[in-house]
Amino acid sequence: MAKRQYSEEKQASEQLLEKSENQKFLILHNDDYHTFDYVIDALMDVCKHPQEQAVQCTYLIHYKGKADVKKGTYAFLKPMMNTLRTKDLKATIE
Predict the structure, then answer these.
(1) Which residues, including other chains, have CB under 8 Å from residue 80's CB and lie 6 or more apart?
(2) How far is CA 79 from each of CA 3, 27, 65, rounded to the nearest angstrom?
C-alpha cells in the first residue's frame, strides 16, 4: 500500500511540474508614448488587476523597460495580449 501511495504522489508531482512548465508570462513593454493612467486603465480592464497592482506594474514597466503582468498558459494569455495590442500597447508572451 505504501508503494501505491508513493506512486500516486509521484504522479501528482509530475503533473504539477508539467503544469508549471506550460506556464508563460504576458510581458508589457515600455513605449515612452502612453500615459501612466492609460496603461493603468488597460491593465485593470484587460488583466483584471486591482488598481494598486496596475500602478505597481506600470512603474516597473516605466523604470525597467518591461514587466510580466500576468502568468498562465499561452491559450489563457493570448486574448489578453491581443486586446492590449488593440490598445496600441506592446505586449508579448514569453
Answers:
(1) 26, 46, 47, 70, 91
(2) 43, 13, 22
pLDDT digits 0-9 by tens, 50-77: 999 999 999 999 999 999 999 999 999 9
Nearest CA to 63 among 94, 93, 39? Answer: 39
**23-93 is classed CATH 3.30.365.10:** no
Eight-class DSSP state of 22: T
pTM, entire model? 0.78
pLDDT at 19 over 80: no
Q: Classify the C-alpha dihedral 37-42-44-45 as positive or negative.
A: positive
